[in-house]
Amino acid sequence: MKSKLTIALIVLVFSSCSEKELLVTPIEIDVESSMRGLYSVDEQVTWVSGTNGVVLNTSNNKDWNTYQDTSWSNLDFRDIHAFNSKEAIIMSSGGNRCEIYKTIDGNKTWDLVYENTSLGIFFDGMDFWDDKNGIAFSDPINNHLLVITTSDGGSSWKKLEAVDFPKMIRHEAGFAASGTSIQCVGDSTVYIGTGGSKEARIYVSRNRGKNWEVMSTPMRKGEASGIYSLTFLDDKNGVLVGGNYLDSASVEGNCAITLDGGISWGLPSTLPKGYMSCVTHNNEGVLVCTGRNGVDVSYDKGNNWKHVTDDAYYSCVMNGNSGWLTGRGGKMAKVVLK
Q1: In CATH, what number does 22-337 get?
Q2: What are phi and psi of 273, to 5 degrees?
Q3: Which of 7, 67, 154, 307 has CA 20 to 30 A from 49's CA?
């Protein structure tokens, strides 16, 4: 009887979620920026970063504060992470240069906390386990991913000397499409997705980067193909999205799911519509992904996807029943579950 009741409750929860409609409403923001960095602290506080030295933040889920630094005009801040309405970290991506800045006064001033101009440097993303401990990664240097960590909330960073970091295969690298090809889960686990080679793989550390293992996935393989974004709903259930941005209409290998914490990966029953650059969830079981082909939603841990709109965005974030989408040329939209 207990087992049957549990199953009935699960079905009821998913049935209730599936009745909600995902509404996407474009909004006007007076900035000229390609915005890929997007992070939501809670249902009120969200931060955005992009090109042309632009950083946006809201503390009421409605009104946006704009910061722009002309000295950053050649930087592309592909990732952002915030701790609250006052503190946030931005990370630039690009060939042979990475700069990381931190604000503690709500987007009024920013301090440089990390810089790397080594040949081959191209940072793809960062994430945090808590308000102090975080990790970021770059495309490979000497056939290994370059990983840096922080233990003081991003105020300082140091190179991680992993014990057994797996060697990368030829042409394998990460993607900085939305800064979300890396995710910290729980207290110590981190996942990094790659592509561009004969395999699209997941690197996993369960002790904050000291030791690593790597697993193949059914995501699309080859040039411009692979894992562009990933998210975990909990320590077992995760979703990968991507595909091939040069063949963006194809659904081949554009999504995979795991039920066992990333040990094994399978294809969902119904795929999203084409190449996707970002995936997120709302902490209540609803998943959203976006990319060049629009926006899709899933109510069953990524096993089935429903197309919402053809309107294209780079990044998405959800928190509770609301969220945001960002894209090219200052393009933004508000997302609401009703």
Answers
A1: 2.130.10.10
A2: -85, 90
A3: 307
